[in-house]
Protein: Helix-turn-helix transcriptional regulator
Amino acid sequence: MSELRMSSGRSVPGSLFKAYLIRTSIMYPVLDILGDPWTLAIIRSIINRPKRFVCLAEELKISRAALSARLDRLEEQGCITRRQYCETPPRYEYLLTEMGRALKSTLVLLQQWNFEWLEGREQPLPAPLKCHHCNKDLKLTVVCQHCSKSLSLDSMRPLLFQQLPEEIPPLQSYRRTRHALVSKESSSVSALSITAEEWLRDRWSSLIVGAFLFGVHRFNDVQSILDIAPNILAGRLELLQQAGILCRVDEAYKLLARGVALYPAIMAMSDWGRKWLPADQVKEVGWRMLHIPCGNWADQRYACLECGGHID
DNA sequence: GCGGCGACGACCTTCATACG
DNA sequence: CGTATGAAGGTCGTCGCCGC
Structure:
Protein backbone atom coordinates (compact mmCIF):
# COMPACT_ATOMS: atom_id res chain seq x y z
CA MET A 1 0.00 0.00 0.00
CA SER A 2 2.67 2.45 -1.04
CA GLU A 3 1.37 4.51 -3.96
CA LEU A 4 -1.48 6.90 -3.46
CA ARG A 5 -2.92 7.81 -6.82
CA MET A 6 -6.13 9.05 -8.32
CA SER A 7 -7.81 6.89 -10.96
CA SER A 8 -6.77 9.57 -13.47
CA GLY A 9 -3.16 8.68 -12.69
CA ARG A 10 -2.42 12.00 -10.99
CA SER A 11 -0.71 11.69 -7.62
CA VAL A 12 -1.97 13.38 -4.47
CA PRO A 13 -0.03 14.24 -1.32
CA GLY A 14 0.25 10.93 0.54
CA SER A 15 -0.25 12.24 4.06
CA LEU A 16 -3.40 14.14 3.07
CA PHE A 17 -4.86 11.08 1.39
CA LYS A 18 -3.99 8.84 4.34
CA ALA A 19 -5.63 11.30 6.72
CA TYR A 20 -8.74 11.26 4.52
CA LEU A 21 -8.80 7.44 4.41
CA ILE A 22 -8.41 7.10 8.16
CA ARG A 23 -10.80 9.85 9.16
CA THR A 24 -13.58 8.58 6.92
CA SER A 25 -12.96 4.95 7.87
CA ILE A 26 -15.99 2.77 8.51
CA MET A 27 -14.12 1.51 11.58
CA TYR A 28 -15.33 4.46 13.66
CA PRO A 29 -19.04 3.55 13.57
CA VAL A 30 -18.19 -0.16 13.62
CA LEU A 31 -16.13 0.22 16.79
CA ASP A 32 -18.91 2.28 18.31
CA ILE A 33 -20.87 -0.97 18.28
CA LEU A 34 -18.24 -3.70 18.54
CA GLY A 35 -15.83 -1.73 20.71
CA ASP A 36 -18.16 -2.03 23.66
CA PRO A 37 -16.71 -4.38 26.27
CA TRP A 38 -19.70 -6.67 26.41
CA THR A 39 -21.06 -6.59 22.86
CA LEU A 40 -18.90 -9.31 21.32
CA ALA A 41 -19.27 -11.43 24.45
CA ILE A 42 -23.06 -11.32 24.15
CA ILE A 43 -23.02 -12.01 20.41
CA ARG A 44 -20.55 -14.85 20.89
CA SER A 45 -22.75 -16.31 23.60
CA ILE A 46 -25.92 -16.45 21.48
CA ILE A 47 -24.32 -17.22 18.12
CA ASN A 48 -25.51 -20.83 18.16
CA ARG A 49 -28.80 -20.57 20.03
CA PRO A 50 -31.05 -18.01 21.77
CA LYS A 51 -30.50 -17.43 25.48
CA ARG A 52 -32.55 -16.00 28.32
CA PHE A 53 -31.62 -12.96 30.32
CA VAL A 54 -30.68 -14.79 33.48
CA CYS A 55 -28.61 -17.33 31.55
CA LEU A 56 -26.61 -14.55 29.89
CA ALA A 57 -26.06 -12.74 33.19
CA GLU A 58 -24.72 -15.89 34.82
CA GLU A 59 -22.57 -16.92 31.90
CA LEU A 60 -20.98 -13.52 31.29
CA LYS A 61 -20.69 -12.51 34.97
CA ILE A 62 -22.22 -9.13 34.10
CA SER A 63 -24.52 -7.13 36.36
CA ARG A 64 -28.17 -7.25 35.37
CA ALA A 65 -28.27 -3.49 34.91
CA ALA A 66 -25.32 -3.54 32.55
CA LEU A 67 -26.68 -6.56 30.67
CA SER A 68 -30.09 -4.93 30.29
CA ALA A 69 -28.49 -1.77 28.87
CA ARG A 70 -26.34 -3.78 26.45
CA LEU A 71 -29.26 -5.87 25.21
CA ASP A 72 -31.36 -2.75 24.62
CA ARG A 73 -28.51 -1.13 22.75
CA LEU A 74 -27.82 -4.20 20.60
CA GLU A 75 -31.53 -4.49 19.79
CA GLU A 76 -31.68 -0.81 18.87
CA GLN A 77 -28.65 -1.26 16.61
CA GLY A 78 -30.30 -4.24 14.93
CA CYS A 79 -27.86 -6.96 15.96
CA ILE A 80 -30.24 -8.92 18.18
CA THR A 81 -33.94 -9.34 18.66
CA ARG A 82 -35.98 -10.58 21.61
CA ARG A 83 -38.59 -13.31 21.54
CA GLN A 84 -41.21 -13.54 24.29
CA TYR A 85 -41.43 -16.98 25.88
CA CYS A 86 -43.71 -16.09 28.79
CA GLU A 87 -46.56 -13.59 28.83
CA THR A 88 -47.11 -13.12 32.59
CA PRO A 89 -44.76 -11.90 33.73
CA PRO A 90 -43.32 -10.86 30.35
CA ARG A 91 -40.06 -12.80 29.81
CA TYR A 92 -37.79 -12.81 26.78
CA GLU A 93 -35.00 -14.76 25.19
CA TYR A 94 -32.48 -13.09 22.93
CA LEU A 95 -31.34 -14.17 19.49
CA LEU A 96 -29.22 -12.79 16.67
CA THR A 97 -30.74 -11.03 13.69
CA GLU A 98 -29.31 -11.50 10.20
CA MET A 99 -27.13 -8.47 10.91
CA GLY A 100 -25.83 -10.10 14.09
CA ARG A 101 -25.24 -13.45 12.43
CA ALA A 102 -23.16 -11.64 9.78
CA LEU A 103 -20.55 -11.08 12.51
CA LYS A 104 -19.71 -14.78 12.45
CA SER A 105 -16.70 -14.26 10.17
CA THR A 106 -15.38 -11.51 12.42
CA LEU A 107 -15.67 -13.74 15.49
CA VAL A 108 -13.94 -16.63 13.75
CA LEU A 109 -11.09 -14.42 12.53
CA LEU A 110 -10.60 -12.89 15.98
CA GLN A 111 -10.53 -16.37 17.46
CA GLN A 112 -7.96 -17.44 14.87
CA TRP A 113 -5.69 -14.53 15.85
CA ASN A 114 -5.97 -15.54 19.50
CA PHE A 115 -5.19 -19.14 18.66
CA GLU A 116 -2.15 -18.23 16.60
CA TRP A 117 -0.65 -15.44 18.72
CA LEU A 118 -1.60 -16.08 22.33
CA GLU A 119 -0.37 -18.79 24.59
CA GLY A 120 -3.23 -20.60 26.25
CA ARG A 121 -5.64 -17.66 26.28
CA GLU A 122 -7.65 -18.39 23.18
CA GLN A 123 -11.40 -18.17 23.74
CA PRO A 124 -13.18 -20.90 21.82
CA LEU A 125 -16.70 -20.32 20.63
CA PRO A 126 -19.28 -22.06 22.86
CA ALA A 127 -19.56 -24.75 20.20
CA PRO A 128 -16.96 -24.41 17.41
CA LEU A 129 -18.46 -23.45 14.07
CA LYS A 130 -18.12 -26.05 11.35
CA CYS A 131 -17.37 -25.61 7.66
CA HIS A 132 -20.48 -26.75 5.79
CA HIS A 133 -18.25 -28.10 2.99
CA CYS A 134 -15.73 -30.26 4.86
CA ASN A 135 -17.39 -30.30 8.32
CA LYS A 136 -14.09 -29.43 10.05
CA ASP A 137 -13.77 -26.68 12.67
CA LEU A 138 -14.12 -23.48 10.68
CA LYS A 139 -10.92 -21.54 9.94
CA LEU A 140 -11.26 -18.65 7.52
CA THR A 141 -9.15 -16.78 5.02
CA VAL A 142 -10.18 -13.56 3.28
CA VAL A 143 -9.99 -13.80 -0.50
CA CYS A 144 -10.77 -11.64 -3.52
CA GLN A 145 -14.28 -12.15 -4.89
CA HIS A 146 -12.96 -11.82 -8.45
CA CYS A 147 -9.80 -13.94 -8.55
CA SER A 148 -10.10 -15.95 -5.29
CA LYS A 149 -6.54 -15.03 -4.31
CA SER A 150 -5.72 -13.93 -0.78
CA LEU A 151 -6.42 -10.28 0.08
CA SER A 152 -3.19 -9.68 1.96
CA LEU A 153 -2.16 -6.25 3.17
CA ASP A 154 0.61 -5.87 0.60
CA SER A 155 -1.60 -6.98 -2.31
CA MET A 156 -3.89 -3.95 -2.08
CA ARG A 157 -3.68 -0.23 -2.43
CA PRO A 158 -6.27 2.52 -2.06
CA LEU A 159 -7.36 4.25 -5.26
CA LEU A 160 -8.90 7.69 -5.22
CA PHE A 161 -11.40 8.35 -8.00
CA GLN A 162 -12.49 11.85 -7.17
CA GLN A 163 -10.89 15.06 -5.90
CA LEU A 164 -10.07 15.16 -2.23
CA PRO A 165 -12.32 17.65 -0.43
CA GLU A 166 -10.88 21.08 0.36
CA GLU A 167 -10.80 20.18 4.03
CA ILE A 168 -10.19 16.76 5.51
CA PRO A 169 -13.34 15.92 7.48
CA PRO A 170 -13.14 15.97 11.28
CA LEU A 171 -13.02 12.73 13.19
CA GLN A 172 -16.30 10.92 13.47
CA SER A 173 -17.91 10.90 16.87
CA TYR A 174 -16.21 8.67 19.35
CA ARG A 175 -17.77 7.27 22.49
CA ARG A 176 -15.27 7.05 25.30
CA THR A 177 -14.95 3.97 27.43
CA ARG A 178 -13.31 3.38 30.74
CA HIS A 179 -11.75 0.08 29.83
CA ALA A 180 -8.00 0.32 29.74
CA LEU A 181 -6.10 -2.70 28.53
CA VAL A 182 -3.28 -2.82 31.02
CA SER A 183 -2.27 -0.43 33.75
CA LYS A 184 1.04 1.39 33.57
CA GLU A 185 2.52 -0.84 36.24
CA SER A 186 1.78 -4.04 34.41
CA SER A 187 4.58 -6.05 32.96
CA SER A 188 5.23 -6.81 29.33
CA VAL A 189 4.12 -10.39 29.93
CA SER A 190 0.51 -9.26 30.35
CA ALA A 191 0.63 -7.19 27.15
CA LEU A 192 1.53 -10.37 25.27
CA SER A 193 -1.59 -12.06 26.55
CA ILE A 194 -4.08 -9.40 25.41
CA THR A 195 -6.67 -11.02 23.14
CA ALA A 196 -7.83 -9.68 19.79
CA GLU A 197 -11.18 -8.84 21.41
CA GLU A 198 -9.42 -6.82 24.08
CA TRP A 199 -7.43 -4.89 21.47
CA LEU A 200 -10.73 -4.23 19.77
CA ARG A 201 -12.37 -3.03 22.95
CA ASP A 202 -9.64 -0.47 23.41
CA ARG A 203 -10.62 1.68 20.50
CA TRP A 204 -7.54 3.89 20.58
CA SER A 205 -5.37 0.82 20.12
CA SER A 206 -7.47 -0.49 17.26
CA LEU A 207 -7.53 2.90 15.54
CA ILE A 208 -3.76 3.29 15.96
CA VAL A 209 -3.22 -0.14 14.41
CA GLY A 210 -5.62 0.91 11.64
CA ALA A 211 -3.55 4.02 10.99
CA PHE A 212 -0.39 1.91 10.72
CA LEU A 213 -2.15 -0.42 8.29
CA PHE A 214 -2.82 2.65 6.13
CA GLY A 215 0.89 3.44 6.17
CA VAL A 216 1.12 6.14 8.86
CA HIS A 217 4.30 5.53 10.83
CA ARG A 218 5.28 8.65 12.75
CA PHE A 219 4.15 9.78 16.18
CA ASN A 220 3.08 13.23 15.06
CA ASP A 221 1.22 11.98 12.00
CA VAL A 222 -0.78 9.49 14.08
CA GLN A 223 -1.43 12.15 16.71
CA SER A 224 -2.73 14.74 14.28
CA ILE A 225 -4.77 12.34 12.14
CA LEU A 226 -6.43 10.61 15.09
CA ASP A 227 -6.57 13.79 17.15
CA ILE A 228 -5.29 11.85 20.12
CA ALA A 229 -3.69 13.36 23.23
CA PRO A 230 0.08 12.81 23.20
CA ASN A 231 0.17 11.03 26.54
CA ILE A 232 -2.57 8.65 25.48
CA LEU A 233 -0.77 7.93 22.21
CA ALA A 234 2.56 7.42 23.99
CA GLY A 235 0.93 4.96 26.38
CA ARG A 236 -0.70 2.97 23.61
CA LEU A 237 2.48 2.86 21.51
CA GLU A 238 4.39 1.56 24.51
CA LEU A 239 1.75 -1.10 25.10
CA LEU A 240 1.65 -2.09 21.43
CA GLN A 241 5.44 -2.46 21.49
CA GLN A 242 5.29 -4.56 24.65
CA ALA A 243 2.69 -6.72 22.94
CA GLY A 244 4.93 -7.29 19.92
CA ILE A 245 2.51 -5.59 17.56
CA LEU A 246 4.74 -2.61 16.78
CA CYS A 247 8.42 -1.87 16.98
CA ARG A 248 10.28 1.38 16.81
CA VAL A 249 12.70 1.89 13.93
CA ASP A 250 14.68 5.12 14.14
CA GLU A 251 12.11 7.94 14.33
CA ALA A 252 9.15 5.90 13.19
CA TYR A 253 7.18 2.81 14.16
CA LYS A 254 6.66 -0.33 12.16
CA LEU A 255 3.93 -2.99 12.29
CA LEU A 256 5.24 -6.44 13.12
CA ALA A 257 3.77 -9.73 11.88
CA ARG A 258 1.59 -9.96 14.99
CA GLY A 259 0.01 -6.61 14.11
CA VAL A 260 -0.35 -7.36 10.41
CA ALA A 261 -2.14 -10.57 11.40
CA LEU A 262 -4.99 -8.50 12.82
CA TYR A 263 -5.73 -7.25 9.30
CA PRO A 264 -8.19 -9.98 8.23
CA ALA A 265 -10.36 -9.40 11.31
CA ILE A 266 -10.29 -5.63 10.75
CA MET A 267 -11.24 -6.23 7.10
CA ALA A 268 -14.12 -8.43 8.20
CA MET A 269 -15.39 -5.77 10.59
CA SER A 270 -15.12 -3.07 7.92
CA ASP A 271 -16.94 -5.25 5.41
CA TRP A 272 -19.67 -5.91 7.97
CA GLY A 273 -20.00 -2.17 8.63
CA ARG A 274 -20.30 -1.29 4.94
CA LYS A 275 -23.02 -3.91 4.45
CA TRP A 276 -25.06 -3.37 7.58
CA LEU A 277 -24.64 0.10 9.00
CA PRO A 278 -27.07 2.86 7.96
CA ALA A 279 -25.91 4.78 4.88
CA ASP A 280 -25.47 8.01 6.83
CA GLN A 281 -22.75 6.35 8.91
CA VAL A 282 -20.73 5.23 5.89
CA LYS A 283 -18.36 8.10 5.09
CA GLU A 284 -15.92 6.20 2.87
CA VAL A 285 -16.57 8.18 -0.31
CA GLY A 286 -14.43 8.61 -3.41
CA TRP A 287 -11.96 5.80 -2.88
CA ARG A 288 -11.79 2.04 -2.85
CA MET A 289 -9.16 -0.60 -2.29
CA LEU A 290 -7.72 -2.11 -5.46
CA HIS A 291 -6.52 -5.72 -5.55
CA ILE A 292 -3.24 -5.36 -7.44
CA PRO A 293 -2.78 -8.96 -8.74
CA CYS A 294 -6.12 -9.04 -10.58
CA GLY A 295 -6.74 -5.33 -11.04
CA ASN A 296 -10.29 -5.46 -9.66
CA TRP A 297 -11.72 -3.79 -6.60
CA ALA A 298 -10.78 -5.70 -3.49
CA ASP A 299 -14.27 -7.09 -2.87
CA GLN A 300 -13.86 -9.68 -0.20
CA ARG A 301 -15.36 -13.02 0.61
CA TYR A 302 -14.41 -15.79 2.97
CA ALA A 303 -13.05 -19.24 2.26
CA CYS A 304 -12.43 -22.26 4.47
CA LEU A 305 -8.70 -22.65 5.10
CA GLU A 306 -9.03 -26.43 5.06
CA CYS A 307 -10.99 -27.10 1.87
CA GLY A 308 -11.13 -23.68 0.17
CA GLY A 309 -14.94 -23.75 0.05
CA HIS A 310 -16.69 -20.41 0.05
CA ILE A 311 -18.30 -19.40 3.32
CA ASP A 312 -21.28 -17.01 3.40
C1' DG B 1 -37.66 -13.32 39.20
C1' DC B 2 -36.93 -9.63 35.82
C1' DG B 3 -35.51 -5.31 34.89
C1' DG B 4 -35.58 -0.07 35.60
C1' DC B 5 -33.74 3.80 38.25
C1' DG B 6 -30.69 6.76 40.94
C1' DA B 7 -26.54 7.32 43.81
C1' DC B 8 -21.95 6.51 44.18
C1' DG B 9 -17.25 5.68 43.17
C1' DA B 10 -13.46 4.03 40.22
C1' DC B 11 -10.82 5.24 36.71
C1' DC B 12 -10.29 6.80 31.91
C1' DT B 13 -9.68 10.73 28.78
C1' DT B 14 -8.82 15.34 27.83
C1' DC B 15 -6.42 19.48 28.26
C1' DA B 16 -2.70 22.53 29.32
C1' DT B 17 1.87 22.85 30.06
C1' DA B 18 6.64 21.68 30.33
C1' DC B 19 10.94 19.22 29.46
C1' DG B 20 14.90 16.96 26.95
C1' DC C 1 9.62 15.78 17.88
C1' DG C 2 8.37 12.72 21.44
C1' DT C 3 7.11 12.25 25.97
C1' DA C 4 5.66 13.32 30.90
C1' DT C 5 2.71 15.28 34.50
C1' DG C 6 -1.30 16.66 37.05
C1' DA C 7 -5.92 18.67 37.44
C1' DA C 8 -10.57 18.44 35.95
C1' DG C 9 -14.36 16.43 33.95
C1' DG C 10 -16.79 12.52 31.98
C1' DT C 11 -18.18 7.68 31.53
C1' DC C 12 -19.76 3.52 33.07
C1' DG C 13 -20.24 -0.55 36.34
C1' DT C 14 -22.01 -1.81 40.78
C1' DC C 15 -25.21 -1.64 44.34
C1' DG C 16 -29.52 -1.13 46.64
C1' DC C 17 -34.16 -0.36 46.13
C1' DC C 18 -38.48 -0.78 44.01
C1' DG C 19 -42.44 -1.96 40.85
C1' DC C 20 -44.48 -5.34 38.02
Observations:
- DSSP finds 14 helices and twelve strands in chain A.
